[in-house]
Amino acid sequence: GVEVSEIFGLERQRRWLRRIAAERFAGADGAAHLVGGVLLHGPAGTGKTLLVQTLAAEFKSTFVVVRGPEIFSRWLGDTEEAVRHIFELARRMPPTIVFFDQLEAIAPVRGADTGSGTADRVVGQLLTELDELEIADRVLVIGATNRPDLIDSSVVRAGRLGLKIEIPLPDASERCAHIAALVRESGWQLGDADVH
Q1: How would you class 152 by CB atoms within 10 Å of its CB: exposed for 0-12, middle for 13-18, buried for 19 or more?
Q2: Between 20 and 30 A from 131 (CA), which of 140, 147, 158, 189?
Q3: Side-chain half-sphere of 140: how many Cα atoms within 13 Å?
Q4: The whole model's pTM is what?
């Protein structure tokens, strides 16, 4: 499993995600005001996926990961059915975090698909599933991207994935803490001054 100690920095973002998950997983009693999911955005390699893995481990929730282009099938209708299946599974096994990594590949701006129209149909199915989620389902949907400008605006509006949390590059102190931990883990004998 993933440990919280493996993540350096991002304290504010972790607090936000913990609060959101706690309210969502409380069900109808605890989260009547919380609607929709979360979009994590920031440069590649900043820990978005690790942050969500840690959250799922912390809450002992079912963790369903959908990685961008992997969901697409060449068979007509299969991709939309896969989206439906993901949400059915999530509802059956609460509490659940559904994590869409590389959301821009799953929910691109509609109308940009000049081929079969599959991408537009997948966006439509994703919107339907997001709109049908209820608080009592105890499902938290989180998307991650390093290109929020490529995501269809209807997916990231309030009530869907409307809460946007930036995951920035680590600052100098966070980088030093990470390097110090790697050095300790490797067994090297360096003092703090050597790391800084």
Answers
A1: buried
A2: 147
A3: 28
A4: 0.84
